[in-house]
Amino acid sequence: DEIGEMPLPLQAKMLRFLEYGELQKVGDNETVRVDVRVIAATHRDLERLSQERTFRLDLYHRLAVFPVVIPALRERAEDIPLLATHILNKLGETMPQKRLSQAALEVFRGYDWPGNVRELGHVLERAAILAEDRPEIGMTEVILRRKRA
Q1: Helix or strand or coil: residue 24?
Q2: Per-residue pLDDT tens for 70-126?
């Protein structure tokens, strides 16, 4: 997660791992071969960072074999009801099951979600806790960051 934040020395190790499928555990001299697929995520423009020399160009090309671009949540507000239901169902495994009120859902659709799905999950978890034993999450339980001016 957030490979664009990885320091250059660690990027070199990641590239070596991706190229040779070998790693060395911390404090161990033995190299271990592994057969894995790596999924890397970032919100940064790795191509631009490569041009600025803050991200290794060779690592960028190694990772860009099959890029999947997922638009920000604010660009796909139609997904919010389904995502919210899924998140609430997952939360329902460890706490009483909740549903989102229509008013709260409308506010969610209009919010810009700078933290994307991760923020949605945190907002829903906090709201579910605040709702206590009530089955519906309403506006009194929803706490969103203020929009920046």
Answers
A1: strand
A2: 999 999 999 999 999 999 999 999 999 999 999 999 999 999 999 999 999 999 999
Closest to 124 in 3D by CA, of 71, 107, 78? 107
Residue 129, H or E segment: helix 116-130
Tokens of 77: 């507000």
pTM, two decimal places: 0.72
Number of H helices, E strands in the chain: 6, 4
Contact 98, 142 (CB under 8 A): no
**In the chain, what are the domains?**
3-63 (no CATH), 73-137 (1.10.8.60)
Q: Annotate 64-100 with b (16+ C-beta within 10 A) or e (fewer).
A: eeeeeeeeebeeeeeebeebbeebbeebeeeeeebbb
Q: Which residues of 28-63 are buried (b: 16+ CB within 10 A; e: fewer)?
A: eeeeeeeeeeeebeeeeebeebbeeeebbeebbeeb
